[in-house]
Amino acid sequence: MSTPEPRLPVLKTYKLYVGGKFPRSESGRVYDVTDSRSTWLANAPLASRKDARDAVAAARKAFGGWSGATAYNRGQILYRIAEMLEGRRDQFATEVAAAEGVSRNKALARTDAAIDRWVWYAGWADKVTQVAGGANPVAGPFFNLSTPEPTGVVALLAPQRSSLLGLVSVLAPAIVTGNTAILVASHEAPLPALSLAEVLATSDLPPGVVNILSGNTAELARPLAAHQDVNAIDLAGAAPELATELEVAAADNLKRVLRPTTDTDPHTPWTADPGTSRLLSFLETKTVWHPIGT
Amino acid sequence: MTHGYARRYGAVVTMPTDADTSSDAALRRQLHGLPGVDAVGLEARAAALGTRSIKTTAKAYALDLAISMIDLTTLEGADTPGKVRALCAKGANPDPTDRSTPKVAAICVYSDMAATAKEALVANGAPEIKVASVATAFPSGRAAMAVKLADTRDAVAAGADEIDMVIDRGAFLSGRYLQVFEEIQQVKAECARPDGEEAHLKVIFENGELATYDNIRRASWLAMSAGADFIKTSTGKVTVNATPPGTLLMLEAVRDFRAATGRQVGVKPAGGIRTAKDAIKYLVMVNETVGEDWLSRDWFRFGASSLLNDLLMQRQKLSTGRYSGPDYVTVD
Questions:
Q1: Residue A232 pLDDT greater than 60, yes or no
Q2: CB-CB: which of A60, A223, A252 is closest to B325?
Q3: What are phi and psi of A37, to 5 degrees?
Q4: Do A228 and B323 touch (CB under 8 A)?
Q5: Start and end of every Aldehyde dehydrogenase domain (chain A) (predicted)?
Q6: Of B154, B238, B235, whose CA–CA distance to B199 is shortest?
Q7: Phi/psi class of residue B303: alpha, beta or left (left: φ > 0; alpha: ψ in -120 to 50)?
Q8: B232 catalytic residue (yes or no)
Q9: Spans of all domains in chain A
Q10: I want to staple B238 with a disulfide (CB 3.0 to 4.6 A). Which of A25, A73, A218, B208 is the partner?
Q11: Alpha-carbon distance A167 to A176, whole Å?
C-alpha cells in the first residue's frame, strides 16, 4: 500500500471590503501577516489613501439608506450578523489564536465574548433613542423633543492588539445607530477583520455601510482624518503621537474625535463592560419644538 | 497642420472638397465613399489614450481647462426660471470659496429659458459666458421643418449665442442625407442675427442612435460640409451618450476636415461625463489627436451638469491636500 499524497492546502486571498465588494488594493500592494511567533499566515492587502478615498465615497453613498432604515430593521440585520459569526466561531477562534498568540480555549472565549458583545449592541438599535433622547420641559405651549441622530460617515481605527473583540467593540456601536463606517483593521492582526467582511457581506447589511481596509494605520488614518467628507473618527488604534496628529488634522472640518483609552494591558479595556459611551459618541441631538394644540 | 504632440495614425480621411450636394444619390456616393472605420483599432486607441497619468501641475491645469470648457446644462421638463438663475450664478462663480476658479464656457438650456439665462448671466457680472439653447424639437428632432426653424428663430431672438440642433436621425438612418444636409443649412441660416452676427451652430448626432462608427463618420462629414460650427455627440437623453471612441472618431473627422478645407470645427462630447478623471481623459484625447489648436473653450466643450462638482472637489483636493466632499459644493 502506498501512502496517499499529502493534500495541498488551498490558501485564502484576503481582500479589502469596500462598497459591498472585495477589491484588492488599488495600489496592488500586499504585506506579510504573521502570527505571534513570526510564522507567515497570509498576505493581506496594503491599502493606499486612494482605497481610503473610495471607502469614504462608498460609506457616504450608503449613509442615506442605512440611517433612514428603521431602528428595528438595523437591529435585525445586526442580529443576523451575530448568527453568521456564531456559524464561523471556529474559524474566528483559529484566527484570533494565531493573531493574539493565545491558546485555543482562550481564543474561543474571546470569540464568544465578541459575538455576545455584537448581540448586546444589536439590542441597542431600537432602544438608544429612548435612552439618549426625550421630551424636554419648556416654559411655553410646546412639545419639545430631543432625538439622537447618527453623525454620518465615521472612520474607525481598530484596536491594534485585540483583533476581534476590540474590533467588534468599536464597529458595532458606530453602525447600530445608523452611521456608516470605514474601519482600518489592526496592522499586525488584520485577518479576523478581513474575515468579518465575509460575514457582513452575507448578512443583509447594505453595501458600503461597513468598509474594511487593512494596511499601515498611519498611512490610512492621515487622509481619513483630513478628509472633509468624514464626520467623525475613532482613534482607538492610534499610538499617542499619531493620535495627536490626527486630532489636529480632524479639527479642520470639526470632526467628532474619540480619543483612545491609555491602558497598558491590551485586553482589559475590551473585556470590561463597555457601557454606552461609544454608542453615544457618534450621535447628534436633534431637538424639535412643536406647538401644543392647534 | 497640427503641431506639438498630435500624431496621425492613418491617412487623411476626406471627401472631395467640391462635394456634389445636389441630390441624395450624390451625397450618398460621397458619404459612403469615406473609408470604413476600424472599430477595434479605434476602441484600442481611445482606451490607450485613457491610461495617461496626469498629476500635480498638469492636473491643476487640466482641471481649470475642463471647468472653462463646460457647457453647464439643465435640460429637464421641470426647469424653472429660478433653477436656471441658480445655474447661471454657479456658472459665473463655480467655487465661491476660491475666486481663482475659472468660469464655465456656456449655460445650456431649452429655448424658452434662453432669455432668463442671458439676463441672469449679465446680472451675475459674467456676460462673457455664452447662452446655448437647444432647438429643432430637441431631443427627438421629430417635428415639422417649420416648427424646427421657428424654434431656432425664437432661441436666437431670445439672445442665445449658440444653437444646439439635433439632426433628424430617422432621415439619416433611412439614407435621406440630402434632407439632413438641407435641414442643417436652413437652421444655420436662421442663426443669423439682424446685426450681422450669427449664433454658433452645434449639430447633435445622437451617436447612441446612429448604431455604427461608420455612421458617426458620415454624420460628421455631412454636418461639417453643411456648415456646422461644432459637432456634438449626444443629447444626454438616451442610454448611450458620449463615449471615448465616438468622440475620438469625431476629433479625427474635424482634424481631417480642416486639413481638407482649412475650416476648423469644434467638438462637444455630452452626456455621461461625470468625473474629473473622465474629463481629463477627453482632454488627453484632444491634445493627442488634434493638438493644442483645439484645447480651448472655443473649439472643445463638455456638455455636463454633475461634472462641474467633481472638478471642483478635485480642485479643492489639489489646493488644500484634503479630500473634499459633496458638502463643499452646491447641489443642484
A1: yes
A2: A60
A3: -100, 20
A4: yes
A5: 31-257
A6: B154
A7: beta
A8: yes
A9: 30-34+41-291
A10: B208
A11: 14
pLDDT in tens, A148-194: 999 999 999 999 989 999 999 999 999 999 999 999 999 999 999 99
User: Does residue B325 form part of some domain?
Assistant: no
Residue of B229, B232, B293, B310 marked active site: B232
Distance from CA of B317 to the nearest CA of A (A): 9
The count of CB pairs under 8 A between chains A and B is 26
Backbone angles phi, psi at A124, to 5 degrees: -75, -15
Distance from C-alpha of A208 to C-alpha of A21, rounded to nearest angstrom = 9
CA distance A141 to chain B (A): 36
Full residue range of the structural domain in which residue B54 is found: 25-319
- Tens digits of per-residue pLDDT, B305-332? 999 999 999 999 999 999 999 889 988 7
- Of the residues B275, B320, B323, the best mutation for testing chain A's interface (the one with the most A CB atoms within 10 Å of its CB) is B323
Q: Which three cell numbers stand for residue B203?
A: 449639430
Q: What is the predicted pLDDT for the residue at B15? A: 75
Place of cell 437652421: B187
CATH class of A30-34+41-291: alpha beta
* Domains: count for chain B: 1
How many angstroms away from the CA of A228 is the closest CA of chain B? 5
Closest-CA residue in chain A for B326? A229
pLDDT of residue A262: 55
Residue B164: active-site member: yes
Q: Give a yes or no: residue B268 inside a domain.
A: yes
Contact residues, chain B to chain A, C-beta under 8 Å: 316, 321-328
Kindly report the number of other CB atoms within 10 A of residue B262's CB atom: 8
How would you class A292 by CB atoms within 10 Å of its CB: exposed for 0-12, middle for 13-18, buried for 19 or more? Answer: exposed
Residue A61: closest CA among chain B residues belongs to which residue?
B326
Is residue B2 a part of any domain in this protein? Answer: no
Q: In this predicted structure, what is the pLDDT of residue B91?
A: 96
Nearest-Cα residue of chain B relative to residue A57: B325
With a cut of 50, list the residues of chain B below it in pLDDT. Answer: 1-3
> How far apart are the C-alpha atoms of B107 and B193, rounded to whole Å?
20
Q: Is residue B160 part of a domain?
A: yes
Instruction: Give the gap in angstroms from C-alpha A143 to the nearest C-alpha of chain B.
Output: 31
CATH number of residue B127's parent domain? 3.20.20.70
Residue closest to B206 by CA, chosen among B160, B137, B254: B137
- The answer to whether B324 contacts A229, with C-beta atoms less than 8 Å apart, is yes
SS (H, E, C) chain B: CCCCCCCCCCCCCCCCCCCCCCCHHHHHHHHHCCCCCCHHHHHHHHHHHCCCCCCHHHHHHHHHHHHHCEEEECCCCCCCHHHHHHHHHHHHCCCCCCCCCCCCCEEEEEHHHHHHHHHHHHHCCCCCCEEEEEECCCCCCCCCHHHHHHHHHHHHHCCCCEEEEECCHHHHHCCCHHHHHHHHHHHHHHCECCCCCECEEEEECCHHHHCCHHHHHHHHHHHHHHCCCEEECCCCCCCCCCCHHHHHHHHHHHHHHHHHHCCCCEEECECCCCCHHHHHHHHHHHHHHCCHHHCCCCCECEEECCHHHHHHHHHHHHHHCCCCCHHHCCCC
> Catalytic site residue B268?
yes
Measured in Å, how far apart are chain A's first and last C-alpha atoms?
A: 93
Interface test with A, best of B322, B327, B331 (most A CBs within 10 A): B322
